[in-house]
Design a protein that fits this description.
A hairpin with a 2-residue loop joins strand 2 and strand 3. It is globular, with a radius of gyration of 15 Å. The chain has one domain: Spore Coat Polysaccharide Biosynthesis Protein SpsA, Chain A (Alpha-Beta Complex), CATH 3.90.550.10. The strands form two sheets. Strands 1, 4, 5, 6, 7, 8, 9 and 10 form an eight-stranded mixed beta sheet that branches. It has a two-stranded antiparallel ribbon with strand order 2-3. By secondary structure, it is α/β, with parallel strands linked by helices. The longest helix is centred in the first third of the chain and has 12 residues, at 30-41. The termini are far apart. The protein has helices at 30-41, 54-63, 80-90, 109-117, 144-148, 182-188; strands at residues 4-9, 24-25, 28-29, 46-50, 69-72, 96-101, 124-129, 132-133, 137-140, 165-169. It is built from six helices and ten strands; from the N terminus they run E-E-E-H-E-H-E-H-E-H-E-E-E-H-E-H.
Length: 189
């Protein structure tokens, strides 16, 4: 059995001049590139959590013909933890979830498969590149209760200290590259 892949794409892009998820990244929107990688991995269904500019994000992903379902998070302004909760509640029947970020367009499809292949290591499995911790992060059903306790603008990393966690070294520098400022787009593309 595979995993449900959750792409978090509900944030407000406060540090970016404009809306970063729809910024052009090598010919397609940042979020489309991120979602395309998740879909291409073929590890399971992909759920995109939308919030801020939800209609525009949905339209962009649909325009590129990506096979995903959308989860609307009406509490997106309260932080990333609310998007995690919305996603996990909407897809409750999986043993494993891979949580990806919509502003990380360079993560390779192979990385999703490597996380899934190593999912027996711990409750939380994260990629590392040259020893540095990155994203996406795989969580097992056994970790869901702790994730659902999260509040505010925090992600899975906030509970990794109380769960069995393991890193998997991958050959993908994209696990460390996120788009936070306009200059990040030109530097990464």
């Amino acid at each position: 059995m595979g995993a449900a892949v959750v792409v978090l794409a509900a944030g407000e892009s406060r540090r970016f001049d404009g809306f970063k998820l729809l910024a052009d990244f090598c010919g397609e929107p940042v979020v489309v590139r991120s979602v395309r990688s998740a879909v291409s991995a073929g590890v399971g269904p992909v759920h995109v959590v939308v919030g801020h500019n939800a209609d525009a994000v949905r339209a962009a992903v649909r325009r590129w013909g990506l096979d995903v379902s959308f989860v609307y998070n009406p509490w997106y302004s309260l932080g990333m933890s609310t998007s995690l909760k919305a996603a996990l509640i909407s897809a409750p029947f999986f043993e494993r979830y891979i949580i990806a970020l919509g502003d990380m367009p360079l993560v390779r499809a192979e990385t999703y498969r490597e996380l899934l292949a190593n999912s027996g290591l711990a409750d939380v499995v994260y990629p590392t590149y040259r020893g540095a911790r990155g994203n996406p992060v795989l969580i097992r059903r056994s970790a869901i209760a702790k994730v659902l306790e999260l509040q505010g603008d925090v992600g899975v990393r906030a509970v990794m200290g109380v769960l069995r966690s393991a890193g998997v070294e991958v050959g993908d520098p994209g696990v460390l590259v996120d788009i936070d400022r306009a200059g990040d787009v030109s530097a990464a593309c």
